[in-house]
Amino acid sequence: MKRLTLIISLLIAIAAPLKAATIEQLFLDEHAGVFNLLDRQARMIMLDNFKSGAKVPVSNNMEGDSSRIVALSEREITVLTSPARQVQARLLVNKRDSIIIAVETVSTPYRDSRVTFYTTAWRRVPEADHIKPVPAITMLYRSAMDANAQAELDALAMPMMEMTLEDDRLALRHSYKPQVTKEVYTKLEPKLFDVRYYQIDGLKLKLIK
Question: With contact defined as beta carbons under 8 Å apart, do 92 and 156 qualify?
């Protein structure tokens, strides 16, 4: 009987964290700085507002600023943490474990993103274990550029790139077009992909051709 009780206790202990690993709970528990403008109470109010259909922004830790949830599904949440910053966080579940991918996009005014990975305890995934290949603007070049061509391009515009999560895909889009004149972009356009999609497979990116 004692052995059965012990087994049941162990099963409950194992199941508890698995049950807690929902994107809503992860959003509430985040402490790595991804949603640092929002305390737990504000996050709870935001979830309640979104579920009730109320499009009411919630004040954050910046004076006169506010945040709101713009999308929520079983595994993904998109939060406009401020008028100039958006965060997409998605729970990626694979055979071995679960990880969180967070895509932070700022508008300055051109859109630029960075991607980071965390465990479900919101511990940063070590640099050596980051997604491969690391997303870079060069992934949107139709062909490799030599140093002179790269320098010429960098002189025309900042190498900014927007990333968005679309289910288990990562979409990459460059931000060159709004930075330059129509005439300049006409020259750049043949050298660039407007968008490229990559399948997220664990910590690997696989180009979808």
Answer: no
Place of tokens 């790595």: 32
| Cβ count within 10 A of residue 181 | 8
- Annotate the chain with DSSP letters as a single string: -HHHHHHHHHHHHHHHHHHH-SHHHHHHH--SSTTTT--HHHHHHHHHHHHHT----EE-SSTT-EEEEEEE-SSEEEEEEETTEEEEEEEEE-SS-EEEEEEEEEESSSEEEEEEEEETT-PBPPGGGS-BSPP-GGGGBSS---HHHHHHHHHHS---EEEEEETTEEEEEE--GGGS-HHHHHHHGGGB-SEEEEEEETTEEEEE-
- pTM comes to 0.82
Residues of the chain with pLDDT under 70: 1-20, 127-128
Whether omega for the bond prior to residue 126 falls within 30 degrees of 0, making it cis, is: no
Mean pLDDT, the chain, integer: 86
How many residues appear in the chain?
Answer: 209
Tell me what pLDDT residue 172 has: 97
Q: Give the integer Cα–Cα distance in Å for 155 and 78.
A: 33
